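ok so i was messing around last nite and threw this chain in just to see what happens. nothing serious, just curious
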Amino acid sequence: MDDWTTSHDRVLAQRNAEGWTFLLEAARDLRTTGAIAPSGRVLARLLTDPVAEHGARPVNVLEAGAGTGSVTRALIPRLACASLLDVVEANPRFAARLRRLVRAHPHLAGDSERVRVHHAFVEELDTGRRYDVIVSGLPFTNFTPAQVETIMDRYMNMLEPGGTLTYFAYRGTRYARALTATRAQARRHRGVEEVLADYQRRYATGCWTVWANLPPARVWRLRRPAPATAPVTSLTALAGAGR
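result:
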């Protein structure tokens, strides 16, 4: 058996284990686990592309709702030297798993202090820093519209001016939920979509669909506006205006 085969088998075994973990945790608590499977490679790449676009410049990055770490594993190798990553996860079992991932990750050998895992809700997180990039894996459709509003406001406040937020939503959830949801649940879901649509109208800079993911997902990229630069007025113009 060659090295590729054994490596491929390990990846498949890891994905299967993570899939079962997601299902078990979702059964325990939908507030902290909203996915039915870990994010695929293409989805993880799209979510983390803004980090790579900074090149060799050190950046501050926040990942919220990291789950079992499928996006975290894609994110760490894309961090430039001296970059800092905060990972926040509300599920205690996932948070413990993420800490083990950070300690063992080969790209962080001897330098794991650059990545910190926080067991907390993101709306309660206070690291004392702003972020160039925020990557969100939170299950927004499991929250109330008010909770989503609070989280999105928190994201935009934590971003540096000009900073980028990426998040995803599964496609087809509206139709799937319509088959089983109560009227109250359907209203809540529509309310969440309206909150997100408002942020998309104000801040979105891109949107992509990942059909190869299970289930297919739509990735949104939002940007916090940079402050407008005041026009530079020359001393000559000022002098002329006073005549």
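not much to say yet. Confidence is low (pLDDT under 50) at residues 1-34.
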